[in-house]
């Protein structure tokens, strides 16, 4: 028995690796000083992305967090403003409250429904109107796909209705227009699942932040898109946030390959995610379950229904190999044990995320391990 295990890393699509083509394009990239606007590869990535999204201009930024923060800073440029975001949104939960501590903007939360939407009735009630006691509602943000809701694709009908609510005459404070921003970290996954172009999904949005480094497999970077005026302001503020980068075409080159070569393959990630979901579902375990209907893209939430078990116990167990399982044949082709990495944090579920490098063989290994571990739980805690 070899001591080197086969590792299937399903913690996040951020662990995806640059492809061989990306590395080749990166090495060959023509570069310049991007702060001077002179990096042709960055300029190409920004223009290409803007065109794909049907927007006027784009800006390459180091991270999705910076893309979202810049959008908040530009849309909420006045002092005393507020942005409305989902209470399960990445902006609210996982960006350190940058809107408040760096941009001086108050975030107000709307309760996220399980499908990643929020109540539009509630939204209407929460928009402020011309009262000097209140902050100025300047921005509403939608996350697409919705990460903590399990990679849910926020429906087009909701987006259309949201835009109609926001753009109604008389909505907002004075004639200050309320902007719509999409945290589109995984918007290409949404487009793949819906079978429509990203430009349709983002039609009514003033700005979109798109991650190249998640399922798109690039090593780093996000692109923010919007009007020329919006991008010009964001470009200015990017420098203040320390995001002015120099010969960064070497990174933008990977982004171009991501758009060309990885986006068309996202459907495979979705299929494989469903395959893992089905395998767990078919076990009909009283301890660990999945809700098949909620599996829409590359994220799967595995629910822990056994009260004596936490998500972190489950993910820890998946990450170790014991002698019993190797004897039982839960191994790769060479007889090595299987390690599956999943995310758990303090959640009531473990999160599994698929991406470019997780191929059919890795999926088979992951399923083998999941079936074994869940099977052990079912022996320990049989259906009563
Ligand atoms: C990953 C992610 C971001 C941005 O994250 P960075 O790590 O800063 O690139 C923003 N929103 C969502 C929904 C994400 O999943």
From TrEMBL:
GO molecular function: L-allo-threonine aldolase activity
Keywords tagged on the record: Lyase, Pyridoxal phosphate
Aromatic amino acid beta-eliminating lyase/threonine aldolase domain residues: 9-302
SUPFAM superfamilies membership: PLP-dependent transferases
GO CC field: cytosol
Pfam families: Beta_elim_lyase (PF01212)
Modified residues (N6-(pyridoxal phosphate)lysine): 214
Record-linked InterPro entries: ArAA_b-elim_lyase/Thr_aldolase (IPR001597), Low_specificity_L-TA-like (IPR023603), PyrdxlP-dep_Trfase (IPR015424), PyrdxlP-dep_Trfase_major (IPR015421), PyrdxlP-dep_Trfase_small (IPR015422)
Cofactor: pyridoxal 5'-phosphate
GO annotation (BP), single: L-threonine catabolic process
NCBIfam families documented for this protein: GntG_guanitoxin
Family of this protein: Belongs to the threonine aldolase family.
Protein name per its UniProtKB record: Aromatic amino acid beta-eliminating lyase/threonine aldolase domain-containing protein
Protein species of origin: Drosophila yakuba
């Amino acid at each position: 028995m070899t001591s080197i295990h086969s590792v299937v890393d399903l913690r996040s699509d951020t662990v995806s690796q640059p492809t061989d083509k990306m590395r080749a394009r990166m090495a060959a990239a023509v570069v310049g000083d991007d702060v001077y606007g002179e990096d042709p590869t960055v300029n190409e990535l920004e223009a290409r992305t803007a065109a794909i999204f049907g927007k006027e201009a784009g800006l390459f930024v180091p991270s999705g967090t910076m893309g979202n923060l810049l959008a908040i800073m530009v849309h909420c440029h006045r002092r005393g403003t507020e942005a409305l975001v989902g209470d399960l949104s990445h902006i609210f939960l996982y960006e350190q409250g940058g809107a408040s501590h760096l941009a001086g903007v108050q975030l107000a939360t709307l309760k996220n429904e399980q499908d990643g939407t929020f109540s539009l009735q509630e939204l209407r009630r929460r928009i402020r109107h011309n009262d000097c006691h209140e902050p100025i509602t300047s921005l509403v943000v939608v996350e697409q796909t919705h990460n903590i809701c399990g990679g849910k694709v926020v429906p087009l009908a909701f987006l259309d209705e949201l835009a109609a609510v926001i753009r109604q005459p008389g909505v907002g404070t004075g004639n200050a227009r309320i902007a719509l921003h999409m945290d589109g970290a995984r918007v290409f996954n949404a487009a793949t699942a819906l079978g429509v172009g990203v430009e349709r999904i983002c039609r009514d949005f003033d700005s979109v932040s798109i991650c190249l480094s998640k399922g798109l497999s690039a090593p780093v970077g996000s692109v923010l898109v919007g009007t020329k005026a919006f991008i010009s302001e964001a470009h200015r503020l990017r420098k203040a946030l320390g995001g002015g980068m120099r010969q960064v075409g070497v990174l933008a080159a990977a982004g171009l390959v991501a758009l060309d070569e990885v986006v068309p393959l996202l459907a495979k990630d979705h299929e494989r995610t469903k395959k893992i979901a089905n395998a767990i579902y078919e076990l009909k375990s009283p301890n660990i379950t999945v809700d098949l209907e909620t599996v829409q893209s590359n994220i799967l939430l595995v629910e822990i229904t056994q009260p004596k078990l936490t998500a972190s116990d489950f993910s820890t167990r998946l990450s170790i190999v014991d002698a019993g399982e190797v004897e039982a044949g839960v191994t790769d082709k060479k007889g090595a044990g299987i390690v599956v990495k999943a995310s758990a944090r303090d959640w009531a579920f473990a999160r599994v995320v698929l991406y470019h490098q997780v191929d059919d063989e890795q999926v088979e290994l992951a399923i083998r391990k999941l079936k074994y571990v869940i099977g052990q739980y079912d022996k320990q805690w049989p259906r009563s």
